[in-house]
Specification:
Elements: H1 3-8, E1 16-20, H2 24-34, E2 40-44, H3 47-54, E3 61-65, H4 73-83, E4 90-94, H5 102-107, E5 112-115, H6 120-153, H7 157-168, E6 174-176, H8 179-186, H9 190-202, E7 206-210, E8 213-216, H10 220-225
Parallel strand pairs: 1-2, 1-3, 3-4, 4-5
Antiparallel strand pairs: 6-8, 7-8
């Protein structure tokens, strides 16, 4: 395991990847390596099994070989795009002899491809680049949801504090700073900031990792617990 690569691609840990490969030794080796970087890795022995698995659970990204029995990588992409109508990132593994598939891959909005023989860091880079736009969209959606909920529950200065946290956290939603810094910037009291942090922690939206280091968590739990946002089907 490469510590430098782990640090570089640490945000991949929040994602689940579906990996389709028909060659057993290759599948086992690469799936094991991917497990060090992704939160969950689900491996399929061919495109057909991958398609069956895809329909049973949520995935954030798909990595698939092109040439496979029963259902090849292009047909798997076509099913995901047209049958399931899922716009999730899909990365293809291909050999130079598979170039006649590239036009189909482009039409199906393939998000990246890597050539055999695989270079693992290049593969991670391609996967990271493919999923990044989707990550940014989800982050913006999460922030907007959280601000709406907090405005209804708390209102006032606490919403400004949360906006400040969003603006000053990194890509992993980590904020480095102190109550005093926020209070000075927003012209409020340290006590107000401290109470806001306690309220966020109470709802599981803010986690203190260590001194002056906090992580903003996803807003779905609070969103689902707030009666104002429940529909008749519970969503």
């Amino acid at each position: 395991m490469n510590d430098l690569l782990l640090d570089k691609f640490t945000n991949l840990k929040q994602f689940t990847i579906l990996y389709a490969e028909d060659e057993p030794a290759t599948q086992t080796t690469l799936a094991s390596m991917l497990e060090d970087y992704f939160g969950h890795v689900v491996a399929a022995k061919d495109g057909l099994e991958a398609w069956e698995i895809f329909q049973t659970r949520h995935f954030d990204i798909v990595l698939t070989d092109i040439l496979m029995p029963h259902l090849d990588g292009i047909e798997l992409m076509r099913n995901i795009r047209h049958v399931a109508q899922k716009d999730i990132p899909i990365v293809l593994i291909s050999a130079l002899t598979d170039t006649h598939y590239f036009l189909d891959a482009i039409k199906l909005k393939c998000n990246g491809y890597v050539l055999k023989p695989l270079k693992f860091e290049e593969l991670l880079e391609t996967l990271h680049e493919a999923i990044l736009p989707f990550t940014q969209h989800k982050t913006i959606e999460m922030k907007n949801r959280l601000l709406v909920v907090l405005n209804i529950l708390f209102g006032g200065k606490k919403v400004e504090i949360v906006e400040y946290l969003f603006e000053h956290c990194n890509d992993e939603q980590i904020f480095y700073g102190t109550h005093d810094e926020i209070a000075e910037h927003l012209h409020t009291t340290r006590q107000t900031v401290a109470q806001c942090f306690k309220d966020l922690a109470k709802f599981g939206l803010l986690e203190k990792m260590r001194n002056k280091t906090y992580k903003l968590n996803h807003a779905n739990t609070l969103w689902q617990q707030t009666p104002l946002f429940k529909t008749d089907d519970g969503e």
